[in-house]
Structures are given as structure tokens and as C-alpha cells.
Specification:
Helix content: 25-40%
Strand order of the largest sheet: 11-12-13-14-22-19-18-17
Structural class: alpha+beta
Distance between the termini: 29 Å
Radius of gyration: 24 Å
Amino acid sequence: MYDKQYFKNELMDMLNPIAIFYDGGNVRFAKHSAWYENASADMEAFARPLWGLVPFWAGGGSDSRFEKLYIDGLIDGAGRNSKGFWGDCHDRDQRFVEMASIAYGLIFAPDKIWEPLSDSEKDRLEKWLVSINDKEVCDSNWIFFRILVNTAMKKIGRAYSAEVMEKDFARIDEFYLGGGWYKDGIHGQTDYYIPFAFHFYGLVYAIAMGGEDKERADKFKKRACEFAKTFIYWFDEDGEALPYGRSLTYRFAQTAFWSACAAADIRPFPLEVIKGIIVRNIESWQSKDIFDNSGILTVGYDYPNLVMAEHYNAHGSPYWGLKAYIFLMLPDEHEFWSCAAAPMPKLDALKQIKEAQMIVSRRNGKSVAYVCGNNTYFDCGQIIPKYLKFAYSAHFGFNVMRSCISAAEAACDSMLTFELDGMIMVRRHFTSCSVEDDRIITEWSPFKGIDVKSTVIPTDYGHIREHEIKSEYDCAACDAGFAVASRDSDNCVMGAEKSAYAENSFQRCEVLSETGGEYVIIPASPNTNIKYQKTVIPAVRYEIKQGITKIRTIIKDCI
């Protein structure tokens, strides 16, 4: 069933609805804004479909309508006197991000988007792209955008900067942590930007330049193989992947790393296992409410949701997820197309991933990640709930905050929160973190005058949290479990007597205390959970007195 034609059809089913919105080098089909210029957002919506179209073309696919749209769009966008000129770039410009997909096309499908251009049109496109060499890019995975542009120029026989490339490769190596893991630049996140950015671009380079730069290509492949051994723990047996960190609206980009492994012909696991991960993840997403009524990908996660979005999520942003289709460049006769989609291999019940500062628990084919989090000062939208909860699960998802004025609007699942002067205070940073074989210990402060040491211990039924709180105030604290779906169709039942619990036909979370407290159910504000439009959160509410208070909470989750 999952042969090449199946995925070609699936890709084009996602792209066909946006075809009517092309206007030269820009695509407009929504009205909300990102923090960059609207012109950049329209250019982004033009460029990002190339992450799917380029491997489609490179693998022998043809669609004359889109081929013409992109030839016309590149001429229009790079033409200084054109109506749709993309404009001159400035330092840290969003358009540098989108240059990468154009470079991807120049590398792997030059017959579609380069060779049809006239000499003057080629000159203009080259000039616009190489302007990235004269500007500052964000000190992060963005460095790879410049590497890809220069690689593309080299592949098509145009001027490129070997000096800039060597400097950029050296900086990428400085981000390498070992074990296949990188950190994403100065903010240090270890999230999906490692698989769908660092490794994806590294493998793109390895595919393109393996014959000319074998040593570096082999290094990227080796790191990818090391990374795969722990990244596989982020995937449930049913295809769902851990929702953790930013840019979750890219959805099936979660599996782009595995697709790139297939395209680069590296086998950290048997090809059948890799195909199984890819198929289950993509098909899981295809079954969700991620498209609007006209078939266009929306900003959100399991459903359209601007509440959980980052400031850089414009209307075309979700099409970054088409990176997952890089395997379409494989030739028709490649064994990937005929091999079976195998189930997940046997994995450890508890896996420490030290580089990512987490422990992953594996029960009943599902993963729960217990994390230190990331001390990030990158204020890009809902950053705290995306990194600084105690636990993350694909089965439960997680909630983001609507406000801090009530427990319902804060909607804090899997967190210890404090109530002071009518405001909900949460963990925003941590001062120390220790990842041990069977527990994670963090020291943090939600507010000046309150210091907390939290120990999270995974168990065979969920996890235990032990908190030592030093407070200068009398206040209240709430230790919450996972958010449980409570939509009308879920028939959720709940209680708060001998414990706090909520359950439906497919989820249950129960919270108990060994140190007193009041059991409560928090009705989370709607649309705060990334998976379910309505949720409730079982929790224990503690009275905290001045001085030292020790509490111990047990979280039982049925997964």
C-alpha cells in the first residue's frame, strides 16, 4: 500500500488546495501575522512547499502547473523591478530561512527551477540568494541556510564562498554535544530542531556532496546514526511523537529525520523499521483535524490553534512539515518502496538521554519524557509550557497558558504552580539540573523569595514528585498531573475525594498526595491543550507556610 505513488498522491493532495493562491513569488491565503514583515510571510508561503515538491521532482514526479508556478515565481520574486520582488534582505532576515528551500531545489531539481531561466533571470536569482553571505544570520540552525545556499551555488556552477562555508561548518561543530545531539545555538535548546534541522540539513549536504566532500558527509551520517539510537524513544508505537519544545506546528516534520536517513541510504535501524516510523507518523497526522475546510494546512497541532503558536508562525509556516517527504527522491526501484513498514523494535523501559537532559519512560508502547527543560530566554510564544513542565506525553499532549490570573486560564498540567496575590507563578528557569539514571533533580524559583528543589522519579505506573520548598511567604501551591481530554464526545468522569482523577475511554490520570493537601480538578480554559480542545487537570493543592515545606505527590497515568 505505502508505495511511491501513494505518497506522491498524498503530497499533491496537500499542495493542490494552495495552487490558486499563488501571485508570482508570493502566496496569500490567510490574514493573521507573524513577527516579521507580511511580505516575508507571503514569500515563506511560496517557498515552503518546495520542501515537498523538490524530492517529488527529483524522484521523477511531474506536475506542469506547479513547475510553471515556481518558474514564474522565482522570476517575479528575484526581479528587482517586478511587482512581487521579495526585497533586499537585512540581518537576521526571515527570508534567509526560505532561501534554504530554494537552494534545495537548485541542488536536487535544477531542471525544474534553474535551467528554464534565462541568463539574466539566473543572474538576478543568484544575486538575491548570495546576499545571505553579506548579512548576519541567527547564531543557531540558521547557519545551515547559508551553507545550503553556497552548496547550491557550487552545484550549479555559480560563485560561492568557500571561506564562509568553512567558517559556518566550524560553528556547526561547536554546537555538537556528542551522542549525535547538537544544541540549537546560543539558546541551547535540544528539541526537534536537532532532528529536523541540524541532522536534516547535514544529511541533505551528505547526499549532495558525498562524492566531493566525503569526509564531512561521512561525519554527518555517523552523527545521524548515533542520534537515531536515542531519538527513536520519542516515538510511540502508534506513530505519535513526543510534543516537546517549539515549532510543533510543523507536525509531521517530526519524522523528517527518518525520511532523510532513508534518502541518504543510512541504516541506524533496518530500513523496514525506519519506514514503519515514517508511515505511522505521517498517517497519524493525516487522520487529524490539521486542515481547514478548503484543505489548507493550519497553524496549530492536532487542530487549528493560534493560542499555542509561536510569534514566527505565519500562514505558510506549517508547510515546513513537507520535509518529511524527502524520501520521494529515491528512485522507483529502491527497496524502500517495496519493503514492509515494520513495528518499533524492543526499547528499554527507561532511557537516559543525557545530552537532551531527559529520561524517557517507555510503557505500553508509549513514551513519557521527564525533562530538566531548557533555560531559554527566547521569547517567541508560550515558551515556558513548551519546555519547563515535569513530563511530556504524546498520549496526553500538554496545555499552554492563556493568562496567569486563575488556575483555569493558566491551565498548568504537569507543573508545580504557586498562587501569590491572585497570580499563578510557574517555573520559568532553573538554577541547576541533574539527570541521573532513575530521576531528574532541578532547583528553581517561580518568584523571588521562593526556592524549590524538585525530584522527579519515574515509576512503573507514572512518576513521583518530591518538592522541598523554601518560602518567605504563606501561599498556596498546586501540583498537577496530565491534562485529560474532556470534550463532549469524551464522556470524561472525574473525582476529587480520596484522590484527584479524570478519565475517559482512552485516558486516565490520578494524582495522590503522601503529605496532605486538598484534591482538586482544574477545568482548563478551552483550546489550551495542543491535542484536545477541552481538558481537565487533576491536582493537589497544598498550603505552603513560611520556612521549609516538603511535599510528595504521586502521579498515576494510564497509557
